[in-house]
Amino acid sequence: MKPLLEVESLHVSYSARTGEVCPALAGVNFSLNPGEILGVLGESGSGKSTLASSLLRLLPANGKVEKGSVHFEGKNLLEASAHDLRKIRGGRVGLIFQEPTSSLHPTLQVGRQVSDVLAAHENLDRLALQQKTSNLLASVFPADADRISRSYPHELSGGQRQRVLIAQATACSPSLIIADEPTASLDPTTQQEIVQLFRALRQNLGLAMILITHNPALLAGLADRILVLYAGRVAEIGPTSRVLSSPQHPYTAALLRCLPSHLADDGAPRKPRLNIIPGDAPDLSLQGTGCRFEPRCTERMEVCILNEPAPVVSGELHEVSCFKFAG
């Protein structure tokens, strides 16, 4: 199967006002097949949002892709014209951001905001535009789509606003959705409702998805594969079931140990005790040698101090960047 998206050797940096250059992504490689869901997992500052923004050249003014390629449907987006990018963004690729409040216009009814996306990419008359907008909102609000359509963003809950963003992202039948922490600001119940909606959209529309999150629990049963980022580098990538049940990189294992355990061994409810990863994430503005996770790693070796590990195959479709698996 030919990949829908291929990212090769992607390097991204940010420039400070002082002129200092800080690398944010360093040599990120991965591919995505049609209809596949890839979870991107990591702590804050690991480069997840930078990855999402760089794929469609939506980096802030001080961000720059230093080198690499992003091929989507055979076209290198890093070399695409502004005209082509406008057609791809929102057309072939849908975007869902973390905070819907800042993504929706406060003084426009949400039905108008969904129809504006359609009008920007499709040549529809007024009646067809209204009908398609109604159908889109009904797909994410089965019970009260008409009321939602007439509402303003401040009249909706956080979960409802996020569903509006999903309607916008899927409006033009894209082949790929990029969702950057789409459930981060939602309560656990609403998070699961959004995850169920993603499952339904995948089944009904057959779209591929990059789902960015800091919560591994959201990816179980949803993502096909997981890519783990640490300090702008790919620590591990592999099938979801294998990464979650048998993590190979010490960072991935440490992340999973931070998940709360709600039940004691005897099954009785107890107050969860949260683990933490000791130490701090590295300062990427400081040029260093060796593995970026080494100062926080309980399994570090002398070679980790001096050299950066290269990706090695740890199992079927599973790669890990760690000297524990070096030949």
How would you sum up this structure, described in words?
- A hairpin with a 2-residue loop joins strand 9 (225-230) and strand 10.
- Residues 262-268 have low confidence and may be disordered.
- With 327 residues, the protein is of the alpha/beta class.
- It is built from eleven helices and twelve strands.
- Helix 4 crosses helix 5 (126-140) and helix 5 crosses helix 7 (158-170).
- It is 31% helix and 23% strand.
Could you give the topology of this structure?
Blueprint: E1 5-15, E2 21-32, E3 37-41, H1 48-55, E4 63-72, E5 75-76, H2 82-88, E6 93-96, H3 100-103, H4 110-121, H5 126-140, H6 145-150, H7 158-170, E7 176-180, H8 188-205, E8 208-213, E9 225-230, E10 233-239, H9 240-245, H10 250-257, H11 302-306, E11 312-315, E12 318-320
Helix pairs in contact: 4-5, 4-7, 5-7
State the gist of this model.
This protein is α/β, with parallel strands linked by helices and 327 residues long.
Sheet with most strands: strand arrangement: 6-7-8-3-9-10-12-11
Let me know the number of strands: 12
| Biggest sheet statistics | 8 strands, mixed
Q: What low-confidence regions span 5 or more consecutive residues with pLDDT below 50?
A: 262-268
Query: How do the helices and strands follow one another from N- to C-terminus?
Result: EEEHEEHEHHHHHEHEEEHHHEE
Rg measurement, Å: 21 Å
The helix content, as a percent range, equals 25-40%
Strand content: 15-25%
Span of the ends, CA to CA: 30 Å
Shape: globular
Structural class: alpha/beta
Mean pLDDT: 90
Enumerate how many helices there are, as a single number. 11
